[in-house]
Amino acid sequence: MSQIRKRVSRRPAAWVEQYRPKNLWQKLIAAGMAVVLLSVLVMYTIAQWYIFTERHRPLEMGVTFIPSYAEYLGLDGKETLDALVNDLGVKHFRLVSYWNEIEPTPGHYDFSGLDWQFQKVYAAGGDVSLAIGLRQPRWPECHVPEWATGWSKDQWYPALKNFMQAVIDHYKQNPALKSYQLENEYFLKVFGMCTDFSRDRLIDEYKLVKSLDSTHPTIVSRSNNWVGLPIGQPRPDEFGISVYKRVWDSVFTHRYVEYPYPAWYYAFYAGAGKILTGKDLIIHELQAEAWMPDGYPINDPATIKEQTKSLDAKRLKDRFEYGRATGMRDINLWGAEWWYWRKVKAHDSSLWDVAKKEFTKSN
């Protein structure tokens, strides 16, 4: 009788027997699910660790500002920056140094267009993260001057380095300068009119920047479409990532697509990167502008209904909250010129009003 009891007691419960993998495929699926669950648990743990450790750092919420884009929208660049500073209360700006605008002819530099931006930001007690290099924010991404179009790399690269040196020498003593952002999303091959993505050039440019100015941090960024841990060279002072949430998919679905990543997903990358490299991750570009199908110009009041499908006031508020929830403390929003266009040209201040409340919280 005791032997029978032992045999009975060793039998698995009925529900265990029911769900136990019966064949190789079931075992592989079960193992795969276990690996996925374990991976998510590890990622979530790292994310929460990062958010907890960063919670006491001050939040620096800023915007990208490009005067030529404001002019494309039919706005006055100086008036737009004045509104961002004095009405919206923005203190932190990512500004651009387009090669084709600053060096219109070889060896002749015109910094007047960027100087007034620095002066305006500094007078308001703000600071500047300056984009440098060939690839910088906004289409066509690589802003090659007309006189260098068609040149071989052996020709244009020395000219680019001379230009970068001129920019750094001009601004490295400026009291508003906070950091440099070197080559916007350098390895993103699917967007922009760029032809060279060699890692050797990026490494060489980083060395050039640090040789000219070792005082200010240098940031290298990547797109959220090509997320990965920063294990390659160069190892900048900080890493940047762009975060886009709702875009028009023109390839497969032909509809708006909302990326499903929770905020802690980016906190994981920030935390894992810090563990591996000791470097911080910033959001250099948080989408806060409509991304519509081709044929819907963003500067046309007739497309307001379509713009709202992509980004409205509620989604903009959610975007601010999403950025904060990542735990990253340095965040630049993308689309501030468009908020102002909606206010003064389309007579809709809903986006501007949301941004004003959110920047008031951050200051």
Task: Report on the architecture of this protein.
With 363 residues, the protein is an alpha/beta fold. 46% of the residues lie in helices and 15% in strands. The protein is built from 14 helices and 10 strands. The strands form 2 sheets. An 8-stranded parallel barrel has the order 1-2-3-4-5-6-9-10, surrounded by 5 helices. Helix 3 crosses helix 10 and helix 8 packs parallel to helix 9. The longest helix is centred in the N-terminal third of the chain and has 31 residues. The chain starts with a helix and ends with a helix. 35% of the residues are buried. About 1% of the residues have low confidence.
Looking at this protein, list some descriptive labels:
alpha/beta, 46% helix, two-stranded antiparallel sheet
Shape: globular
Total beta strand runs: 10
Percentage of residues assigned to helices: 40-55%
Computed CA radius of gyration, to the nearest angstrom: 25 Å
* Proportion in β-strands: 5-15%
Mean pLDDT across all amino acids: 92
Largest sheet: 8 strands, parallel, barrel
Going by helix content, strand content and strand pairing, the class is alpha/beta
Count of separate DSSP helical elements: 14
- Describe the oligomeric state of these chains in a short phrase: single chain
Distance between the termini: 78 Å
* Strands side by side in the biggest sheet: 1-2-3-4-5-6-9-10
The helix/strand order is HHHEHHEHHEHEHEEEEHEHHEHH
Low-confidence stretches: 4-8
